[in-house]
Amino acid sequence: MAQNVTETLAQAPLPDVDSIVILNSILILLLAYLAARAMTSMLVWFSERAYEHRITIKMAIPLLKFALYGLALYYILGSILQLSTVELVAFSGLAGAAIGFGLKDLIAEIIGGLVIVLEKPYQVGDEVEVGKYYGEITDIGPRSTKLVTPDDNLVTVSNQMILSDAVANSNAGRPEMMVVIDLFIDSSSDAPRAMELLKEALFTSRYVYISKDRPAKVLLKDFPFYRRLRAKAYVYDLRREFDFESDVTKRAWEVFEKEGIRPPQMDVANFSLRQDNQE
Fold first, then answer.
1. C-alpha angle with apex 107: 122 to 86, nearest 5 degrees?
2. Which of 73, 120, 129, 184 has its CA 20 to 30 A from that of 28?
3. pLDDT value at position 182?
4. Is the pTM of this model over 0.90?
């Protein structure tokens, strides 16, 4: 079998590659790139106006890119280079040799991109943590994934990370996302009353999303020098995560002050809060 393949590669007459062929190939790839950019912009524009289906529409972006680049490569090999079946086998052999000699990282990135598209550990529009990076996925390309962090930094992550690193997905393709808000009060404060006030601030926030499948709750935990109130609820749009957290925190502390509910004493709280954050 190996001998037959070797003979096929040796006998396959590869086409002459002149400047016209190279320019045509570059032109096809450029057109595929421009078409992918245009279609991506159009889908993003449309998704922002069809809010309920925003993430579903953005899911089509990586599939579209892979399809356009695949068609461009197929056209170059079949129409411009005019490779026959035998020549395609020869090209595959040469491509395999090139991969073995130095394109392993590139192929790993492309395979990682295919895994992302097929298995969907995350999608465009999801809020995820990949490695040490956290943010909203804005683009999934053949080689890399782009996400925007809460500090508005654009981070490009190699797709091959998906083959080795864990991915934490906060919303799994849905526009709403759970947000956890921690408030700390002095151990002598009225904890039941504080829970009621925090729940009221939570339920009346303009950013909250509550349904049968997306409940909201407030939990209490005692520590040696303070108490922790933990509010858990869904924000209606993951892009409003920090607006939601700030809104609930601000309004809760306003009513806490009126009710005499105090924060922990600073002389004992700093050490305890550090312990809590390490849990």
1. 125
2. 120
3. 96
4. no
Domain range enclosing 235? 177-277
Do 38 and 84 lie in one domain? The reply is: yes
Q: Report the first-to-last Cα separation within the chain, whole angstroms.
A: 59
Q: What HEC string does the chain produce?
A: CHHHHHHHHHHCCCCCCCHHHHHHHHHHHHHHHHHHHHHHHHHHHHHHHCHHHHHHHHCHHHHHHHHHHHHHHHHHHHHHCCCCHHHHHHHHHHHHHHHHHHCHHHHHHHHHHHHHHHHCCCCCCCEEEECCEEEEEEEECCCEEEEECCCCCEEEEEHHHHHCCCEEECCCCCCCEEEEEEEEEECCCCHHHHHHHHHHHHHCCCCEECCCCCCCEEEEEECCCEEEEEEEEEECCHHHHHHHHHHHHHHHHHHHHHHCCCCCCHHHHHHHHHHHHCC
Domain boundary among 81, 97, 119: 119
Q: Is the dihedral of CA 140, 143, 145, 146 positive or negative?
A: negative
CATH, residue 256: 3.30.70.100
- Here the tokens at position 194 are 């504080």
pLDDT at residue 269 in the model: 44
Total domains in the fold of the chain: 3
The reported pLDDT for the residue numbered 99 is: 52
Question: 10 Å Cβ neighbour count for 177?
Answer: 22
Question: Please, what sign has the CA dihedral across residues 209, 213, 218, 221?
Answer: negative
CB atoms within 10 A of CB 175: 20
Q: What is the pLDDT of residue 33?
A: 84
- The residues of the chain scoring below 50 in pLDDT are 1-3, 5-6, 8-10, 12, 14, 268-269
